[in-house]
């Protein structure tokens, strides 16, 4: 197994005109699922060398909780960002700042210890 260069895969699909097609959707879904599985395996391997299995449980469990949050409540909270950019006709500095702050907030829990 290997970890996909996911942004590169998305760009290739876009440039080949496969965006929205069944093949493009399947390729992106397979890449995302494969990456998630490999990151889980990596967490288990790293836990075997470190602080024990609790590290892997926290990493995998935290990833699942974050994924569920983003697919449910996160999707509703982020929905206004797209229409705001469309109304402005571009990504404004304020919208960019809000987006970057949300990215940082989303990555913050990954740095929490104990």
Which word captures the global form? globular
Radius of gyration: 17 Å
Mean pLDDT across all residues, rounded?
85
Q: So what's the oligomer here?
A: single chain
Structural class: mainly alpha
Proportion of beta-strand residues: under 5%
Report the strand count. 0
Name the helicity range.
Answer: over 70%
Number of helices: 5
The helix-strand sequence is HHHHH
Q: Terminal Cα separation, in Å? A: 30 Å
Largest sheet: none
Number of domains: 2
Low-confidence stretches: none
Short structural summary:
This protein is mostly helical. Helix content is about 75%, strand content about 0%.
Structural summary, described in words:
The chain is mostly helical and 114 residues long. The protein has 2 domains: 1-74, no CATH class; 80-114. It contains 5 helices and no strands. The protein has helices at residues 6-15, 22-49, 53-78, 81-88, 93-107. Helix 1 (6-15) packs antiparallel against helix 2 (22-49) and helix 2 packs antiparallel against helix 3 (53-78). The longest helix is centred in the first third of the chain and has 28 residues, at 22-49. The protein is globular, with a radius of gyration of 17 Å.
């Amino acid at each position: 197994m290997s970890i996909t260069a996911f942004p590169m895969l998305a760009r290739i699909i876009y440039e080949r005109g496969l965006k929205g097609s069944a093949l493009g959707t399947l390729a992106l879904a397979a890449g995302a699922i494969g990456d998630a599985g490999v990151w889980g395996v990596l967490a288990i391997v790293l836990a075997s060398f470190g602080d024990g299995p609790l590290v892997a449980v926290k990493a995998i469990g935290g990833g699942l909780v974050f994924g569920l949050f983003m697919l449910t409540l996160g999707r509703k909270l982020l929905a206004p960002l797209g229409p705001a950019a469309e109304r402005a006709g571009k990504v404004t500095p304020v919208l960019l700042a809000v987006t970057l702050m949300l990215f940082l907030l989303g990555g913050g829990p990954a740095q929490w210890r104990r």
